[in-house]
Automatic annotation (TrEMBL), chain A:
Belongs to the PyrI family. Contains catalytic and regulatory chains. The keyword Metal-binding applies. This is Aspartate carbamoyltransferase regulatory chain. Keywords: Metal-binding, Pyrimidine biosynthesis, Transferase, Zinc. GO terms for biological process: 'de novo' pyrimidine nucleobase biosynthetic process; pyrimidine nucleotide biosynthetic process. Binds 1 zinc ion per subunit. NCBIfam families: ATCase_reg. Residues 104-148 form the Aspartate carbamoyltransferase regulatory subunit C-terminal domain.
Automatic annotation (TrEMBL), chain B:
InterPro entries: Asp/Orn_carbamoyltranf_P-bd, Asp/Orn_carbamoylTrfase, Asp/Orn_carbamoylTrfase_sf, Asp_carbamoyltransf, Asp_carbamoyltransf_Asp/Orn-bd. L-aspartate binds at K82, R163, R224. It catalyses: carbamoyl phosphate + L-aspartate = N-carbamoyl-L-aspartate + phosphate + H(+). This is Aspartate carbamoyltransferase. Heterooligomer of catalytic and regulatory chains. Catalyzes the condensation of carbamoyl phosphate and aspartate to form carbamoyl aspartate and inorganic phosphate, the committed step in the de novo pyrimidine nucleotide biosynthesis pathway. Pathway: Pyrimidine metabolism; UMP biosynthesis via de novo pathway; (S)-dihydroorotate from bicarbonate: step 2/3. Coiled coil: none annotated. Its EC number is 2.1.3.2. Residues 5-144 form the Aspartate/ornithine carbamoyltransferase carbamoyl-P binding domain. It comes from Haloferax elongans ATCC BAA-1513. Pfam families: OTCace, OTCace_N.
Length: 155, 304
């Protein structure tokens, strides 16, 4: 009943509902999506919502926005249990769990300031996904899972 | 060699390494046979950071194979100064040369450059990243003097920023070599090199004092600890002083200990060692020529 009520409160017409986000990661999810409140999307965030699967979870709902694959890829690293619901005209038309990718490109920037990927070169950052983090394709720097949120490229 | 470029020591298999070292030995034994091997070939030298040795060494190696070199000259007088990207520079120079040698102050520069060109590329140093051609001549020197299997090596000095150290440690995992790392705590191996060493099954044995391992070493590889790594002069002097080698230090070493250094040295190896049988660092520097000749020969022959 609780879930149903909440869904009604912030039901969206078209967009994405990211559910089963680990509690505490909602703001990082927004950071991955580049949402800081200035671009005008209607966003609702539920934090520490009771959940059967996770105990407590966060939920992020974004009106008018469907996620790109590279956004979903990075999302999977900080919210491995997340499910993504694409909503069109108030109906969930597509529901999927995130899958841990083998590589991620863009979205995360290399924490090594001296890495060529941080220079003004015509390349996109790229990382190989390790069991506990990601590794820069260029300089080899390793970013642990818990450090990923601090290295999001949300420009 | 299976790959077209030499970017990182991690990419080198034991077979790749042995192919280069064996070729270098052939060249050493009969340099005349290789004198016209690559006549008409042009090697592009792109050094975005001051270097005399490595640049001269590649220049000489190409010329001794019968080829020629073109050099972009110092960064101050090049297009780079006008804001050209590295990606553009290498694409332009690729049109002038059959292979490129790149040194750059940013980590990952060679990896990126290789994405933009089709000719073979040799990474001659990318920031604090890798310097794999140095590693090949280091391995050649170790093989000549101590053998490459069933030996114990100590690698000492600036292990954090030392690109020759990173490449050497990773390449040595291809052989039955027991590696010890000796450095001040602030200059221990970086996370990514540790990761590669663990991934290849090597154990990382670290020490802050050379005495702890010196007696069991067959090879001691010394690197320079740079002043700019320390906040103040006093701390630098204190730390650097603990990692110096002189006759007194060597009293505890094996008679057969081989001492190496990628050069240039400042004062981490006392000149009194130079005339001893331990000192192999000048031989090591000379090995740069046959080894780089061998490397170029193999990379340039790949598409035959
Ligand atoms: Zn990087």
């Amino acid at each position: 009943m609780t879930d149903d009520h909440q869904l009604r409160v912030s039901k969206i017409q078209n967009g994405t509902v990211i559910d089963h986000v680990e509690a505490g990661q909602a703001l990082n999810v927004l950071a991955i999506l580049g949402i800081d409140g200035t671009s005008g999307e209607t966003v609702s965030v539920g934090m520490n919502v009771p959940s059967d699967r996770l105990g407590r979870k966060d939920i992020v709902k974004v009106e008018g926005r469907e996620l790109s694959q590279s956004e979903v890829d990075v999302l999977s690293l900080i919210a491995p249990a997340a499910s993504i619901n694409i909503v069109r005209d108030y109906e969930v038309v597509e529901k999927s769990r995130v899958v841990r990718p083998e590589t991620v490109s863009g979205v995360v920037s290399c924490p090594n300031r001296n890495c060529i990927s941080n220079a003004d070169e015509p390349i996109t950052s790229g990382f190989a996904v390790l069991s506990d983090g990601v590794r820069c394709d260029y300089c080899g720097a390793i970013v642990r899972e818990k450090e990923i949120a601090a290295n999001l490229d949300v420009s | 060699m299976r790959q077209d470029h030499l970017i990182s020591a991690v990419d080198l298999s034991r077979e790749d390494i042995e192919a280069v070292l064996d070729r270098a030995a052939e060249i050493d034994a009969n340099p005349a046979a290789f004198r016209q091997r690559h006549a008409g070939t042009v090697l592009g030298l792109c050094f975005f950071e001051p270097s005399t040795r490595t640049r001269m060494s590649f220049d000489t190696a190409m010329k001794r194979l019968g080829g020629q070199t073109v050099d972009m000259g110092p960064v101050e007088s090049s297009s780079v100064k006008k804001g050209e990207t590295l990606a553009d520079t290498v694409r332009v120079v690729e049109g002038y040369a059959d292979a490129l040698v790149l040194r750059h102050p940013s980590e990952g520069a060679a990896t990126m450059a290789a994405e933009f060109i089709d000719v073979p590329l040799v990474n001659a140093g990318d920031g604090a990243g890798q310097h794999p051609s140095q590693t090949l001549l280091d391995l050649y020197t170790i093989r000549e003097n101590a053998g490459l299997d069933d030996i114990t090596i100590g690698i000492m000095g600036d292990l954090k920023y030392g690109r020759t150290v990173h490449s050497l440690a990773e390449a040595l995992t291809n052989f039955d070599v027991n590696q010890h790392f000796i450095s001040p705590e602030s200059l221990q191996l970086p996370r990514n090199v540790r990761y590669d060493l663990h991934a290849s099954g090597a154990s990382v044995k670290e020490h802050t004092e050379l005495d702890e391992v010196l007696p069991e070493l067959d090879v001691l590889y010394v690197t320079r600890i740079q002043r700019e790594r320390f906040p103040d002069e006093n701390e630098y002097r204190k730390v650097a002083g603990e990692y110096k080698i002189d006759d007194e230090t060597l009293a505890a070493a094996s008679d057969d200990l081989v001492i190496m250094h990628p050069l240039p040295r400042v004062d981490e190896i006392s000149p009194e060692i130079d005339d001893s049988d331990h000192a192999k660092y000048f031989e090591q520097a000379h090995n740069g020529i046959p080894v780089r000749m061998a490397l170029l020969d193999i990379l340039l022959s790949n598409d035959d």
